[in-house]
Amino acid sequence: MRYYTIICLLLILPFSCKNKQVDSVSTKETNNKQLETKEFVELNVKLSAGKILRLEAFLSNFIKSRPVDVWLPENYSPNKIYNVLYMHDGQMLFDGPSTWNKQEWKVDEWATKLMQEEKTENFIVVAIHNIAEIRWEDLFPQKTFEFISEEERVQVKSLSGSKEFKLNGDNYLRFIVKELKPIIDSSFSVHKGRDNTFIMGSSMGGLMTMYAISEYPEIFGGGACLSTHWVGALPVDKNPFPEGIFSYMEQNFPLAGKHKIYFDYGNETLDAHYPQYAPEVDRILKLKGYTDVDSRNLFFEGTNHSENSWNQRLDIPLTFLLGKRTD
């Protein structure tokens, strides 16, 4: 019953395995030359400042086609060089009226304010849209599944409700690193190195951000994980996913010295399940050599699991990752 409960709860999530199975590779084969010819189109959307350019259907060899938006700050200039922030759940970041819950992160508001006040370096935002039906498969940190017991893996696969149990987190990261980043680097005036490349997300996107830093420490210099969904699916008793996630981190999260990492959590709605994991996050950060200089694991009393909570504190991770350098 333990495993049946876990999977039944997982399957009713909007990003569940129960939804129609989608091939991890687009049925339209593409190559780098085709990808490089894609054109960005400016969106007619109300922003506080700046503009959004969109690739409407990014054809990938690794994941299902989806829109990718690039937010450029006001007075973006090819004569300047910008840092790059990659963000998951891209359709939730800028335009509340167009989102499913009428909420947004207010990324353009905060980014503009912080740059104008010279609290951060100049940066652009690359917003990767999710596809609701396969969001869980794309954003679950794939290799952490191998850190739960063989018995648990067998039970999860057999009860998944799919003909083929398919995790796609590794391909999602390959898409970002091998396909998307080269196009961003060649299309915009940006720094290309690790120290100026960052990644951010919330909930499952928080897990994927942690995973990105672990799998590609040479690509991403820092990450911000808001309301990280440590439970992996819906919370249930004797859930094997958190133990697998933390065991993976203990082995694979990069040692301190070249990265910045930000975690946070609240204690209402879904976030109510996260405070119990804070000591384990602190333990792993300490084990890896992180201090207050290069890491955060912050608690926000009375905050819940929503864009309206994240947009109230977005300045904190943005400033932590992209703050003006004094060297």
Tally of DSSP β-strands = 9
Anisotropy-based shape: globular
Distance N to C terminus: 57 Å
| Proportion of residues in extended strands | 15-25%
CATH superfamily: Alpha/Beta hydrolase fold, catalytic domain
User: From the coordinates shown, what is the CATH architecture?
Assistant: 3-Layer(aba) Sandwich
Query: What is the number of independent domains?
Result: 1
Low-confidence stretches: 1-9, 11-37
State the CATH class.
Alpha Beta
- Physical arrangement of strands within the biggest beta sheet: 1-2-3-5-4-6-7-8-9
The major sheet is characterized as: 9 strands, mixed
- What is the gyration radius calculated from CA atoms? 19 Å
In which range does the helix fraction lie? 25-40%
Q: What does this protein structure show overall?
A:
This protein is α/β, with parallel strands linked by helices. The protein has one domain (2-322): Alpha/Beta hydrolase fold, catalytic domain (Rossmann fold, 3-Layer(aba) Sandwich), CATH 3.40.50.1820. 33% of the residues lie in helices and 15% in strands. The protein has helices at residues 2-11, 32-36, 107-116, 135-139, 150-158, 169-187, 204-215, 241-252, 278-287, 307-313, 315-322, and strands spanning 41-42, 51-58, 66-72, 83-87, 123-128, 197-202, 222-226, 260-265, 295-299. A nine-stranded mixed β-sheet has the order 1-2-3-5-4-6-7-8-9, with helices on both faces. It is globular.
